[in-house]
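quick one, 238 residues, struct below
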Amino acid sequence: MCGRFAMDKETDDMIQEFVAEGGDFRNWRPSYNISPTDQIPVFLESKRKDEPSVRRLELARWSLVPSWSKELKTKVPTFNARAETAAEKPMFKASVASRRAIVPAIGYYEWQTDPVTKKKTPYFIHARDGELLGFAGLYAWWADPALERDDPERWHLTATILTSDAVQTLADIHDRNPVPLPRELWDHWVDPTVVGDQALLDEAVRAALPVAGDLVFDRVGPVTGDGPELIRPLPDDA
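---
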């Protein structure tokens, strides 16, 4: 799973990184401790009828809420979606088909549980060279039925991060990991004209294997508060 991650890029950096148009980033602040339901940046591409597609960065609520939900919360956690089943789940099926996104991150946290003591040790998992990661994600727009159609507060962009079985190098920490797509697949993944199905999800998981397999992990201190100290590796004797 991926229940906490870090993203220290500024909006201008991300727009250049994705060669995208700007979005509504009034509330975005780089963070080293992003939790479910927090606002996260997402890279997406949308298209209206015969108009050219538009690629942009937007802020989304991290926990996907499908359009048919009656409220902005779900009975089960939706900040992650299993790549093995997302294409058939009512919660995610429509998003798999045409609303796919890239969630940028500099890394994510995972907790290794000691089988005897049950003590949980936090690790920060990131690219070996410090490169930006692009997690395969899904998005959905949710409209608040209590507000008028022309109310700008009515629409909420929500998103989730896909996960798969952990690669061998990370399996001792946790049995799941997010799906970090290689850059050459980013454009294909977000293309709204590509109809998404289980085959596309399987393709994404396969393509992500070399990226995930090359991730490195550092033991870190308690993941509380916010700041670059959260991702600072602890010395071996700490």
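The domain at 5-231 is CATH 3.90.1680.10 (hypothetical protein yedk fold).
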